[in-house]
Amino acid sequence: MADSLLNSMHISAAGMSAQRSRMDVVAENIANAESTRTEDGGPYQRRQVIFETVAPQGSFSNVFSSSLKSNQHQTVKVADVVKDSRPPQELFDPSHPDADSNGMVKFPNVNTVEEMVDLNSASRGFESNVTVMQASKRMFLKTIELLR
C-alpha cells in the first residue's frame, strides 16, 4: 500500500515538474511577444515544450506485475523545448527601428491568446497533479493512523 502511495506521489511530482516547465516557456513566449530583435538577429521565435513518457521496459504482463511490486511506474518528463516553425508575422510600420527598406517589420510568431490557452491548460494539469498528491498524502497519513 505504501509503495503505491509513494508511486502516485512520484508520478504527480513528475507531472507537476513537467507542467511547471511548460508554464515557464509560455511565460517566456508572452514576455517576448513583441521582441523584433534577438541575439540571432531576427524576431523571437515561439517555443514549445515536448513531453516524453518514461516507462518501464518489458512486456505488458511483466511491467504490470513489477509495477505492483516495486517502484517501476510510468511517468512524464520534458524531452525538449523546440522553436515553433511557423513564420514570423510581417506588419507594415516604416517608423519602426527594425523595418526593412519596404517598411515591413517581422514580429514574433507568438499569439498571446493561444499562449493564454496553453498557460491555462498547463495550470489545470499542474492543479490536477497537486490534487492527486494531496489525496495520496491523505491516504498515506490515514494508513499510518490505522497502523497505530
TrEMBL record:
Residues 12-34 form the Flagellar basal body rod protein N-terminal domain. One of its GO terms (biological process) is bacterial-type flagellum-dependent swarming motility. It is found in: Bacterial flagellum basal body. Keywords: Bacterial flagellum, Cell projection, Cilium, Flagellum. It comes from the Bacteria. The keyword Transferase does not apply. InterPro entries: Flag_bb_rod_N (IPR001444), Flagellar_basal_body_rod_CS (IPR019776), Flg_bb/hook_C_dom (IPR010930), FlgC (IPR006299). Coiled coil: none annotated. GO terms for cellular component: bacterial-type flagellum basal body, rod. Residues 81-99 have a biased composition (Basic and acidic residues). Residues 102-145 form the Flagellar basal-body/hook protein C-terminal domain. Residues 81-103 are annotated as: Disordered. Its main location: other. PANTHER family: FLAGELLAR BASAL-BODY ROD PROTEIN FLGC, FLAGELLAR PROTEIN. Belongs to the flagella basal body rod proteins family. The basal body constitutes a major portion of the flagellar organelle and consists of four rings (L,P,S, and M) mounted on a central rod. The rod consists of about 26 subunits of FlgG in the distal portion, and FlgB, FlgC and FlgF are thought to build up the proximal portion of the rod with about 6 subunits each. NCBIfam families: FlgC. This is Flagellar basal-body rod protein FlgC. It comes from Mariprofundus ferrinatatus.
